Amino acid sequence: MMDRVSSTEVSDLAICELKGSFEKIPYIKELLPKDLSAYTQEVRDQVTFLLHSGQWHHAMESLQVAKAKLGYLIPKYFPDKGGEAEACLNVLRSITLPSPPEAPAFTYLKGDAPEKGERSTITTLNANVLFMPDDYTWFFGGVRRFEERVDEVAAILLQENADVISLQEVHSIDAAYALYERLKGQYAHFYFNIGPDDLTQDLDAIQMNSGLFVASRDPIAHPRFIPFTMEGRQVGINKGFFEGTLMVGGKPFGQLYHTHLNPFETPVAQRVRKEEAEMIVASMEHFPLFSVLLGDLNVNEGSKEWLDSPLSQKFIHNYPPGEGPTCTDTLGSIVETPREDRKGFEPEGHVCDYALLFPKASEVTITSRQVKFYDLEDPERAASDHQGVFSTITKGLTD
């Protein structure tokens, strides 16, 4: 997700008024708790039960959601309740938490499908699917809860049939397992809960995992997650990049990189994004093989930031202009608008989701196309606020 951009930065769609039904799309104030004391007690009881049941991640998820509602959303949309919300947060801060468990840098599960054999071409599908917990999906993207969309998203992924699936914003562990169950028959290797960062006894330090999710038909050798540490980066999410060597037919094919760069449009945010991109490039330069970078990079294609970034200067980008935007803020605008004021919306969109090729000595090509996850003519049925990017990567016969 990015901050709103002006209509002059988007496609010709912006001159048309958005049509469609909004009846099933809630207004954001309707989603927030009205009785803050009762909500706080409910969270306390839920967290206590989850901890006694050994469900650490779910307990931390409940606290993280409560922190966002009480510490950010309530003061923003109900300023007169800011003091009460802070008092409720202090109640949650007083919860005594046990020592956190140890956790690996990611969860790996084997799928039921066999690995694919040797070949000179692989395909990838990159998409931000907004699988956040609770009503975060409405708050920060304008789409239904993940439980209502997971079958639709899985159906799109299976229909596209890419060799590698790279998803962003799969922050909910329940969502990750739900995807695994639906995809395991067609994929051999899964990586999720990448970069967990809820292993703390401090409510204010709880972060969501990176949200990165990978499913592959081929093994990924030496997988690792490298967190971003630069000053000014987004708080609340443990962002970084996941990388490893994609093994095709038992041989190294190329380096796979997967990330979700810093959001927002402030000068600090843009500086952080550039530093994150430079960090990824520095890692890629250590490998003799080419690398492919998949992710929601939060940089508008064609913008000054894009032109000044290593993302445009160091990589090959082959996404046809006619394919259209890969992300929209229109869905979020609907949720933020009172029902009585929803007279129509100008469709807005920009390209910020990419499959980028970092070439080396070997001959390699990449072509990309859009995969539709939303249609602004039918906002109620959006499977995400991002479109997907399907790419075909082909190595020369001499490799």
Task: Please sum up the structure shown.
With about 400 residues, this protein is an alpha+beta fold.
Task: Explain how this protein is built.
The chain is an alpha+beta fold. It has 2 domains: 7-24 and 103-395, 4-Layer Sandwich (Deoxyribonuclease I, Chain A); 28-93, no CATH class. Helix content is 29%, strand content 21%. It has helices at residues 36-52, 56-77, 82-93, 136-139, 146-160, 173-183, 267-284, 304-308, 310-313, 330-335; strands spanning 107-110, 121-128, 164-168, 189-192, 213-216, 220-227, 240-248, 251-260, 291-296, 316-317, 353-358, 364-371, 388-395. It has a 7-stranded mixed β-sheet. A 6-stranded mixed β-sheet has the order 6-7-8-9-11-10. Strand 7 and strand 8 (251-260) form a beta hairpin. Helix 1 packs antiparallel against helix 2 and helix 1 packs parallel to helix 3 (82-93). The radius of gyration is 21 Å and the shape is globular. The model is unreliable at 1-16 (pLDDT under 50).
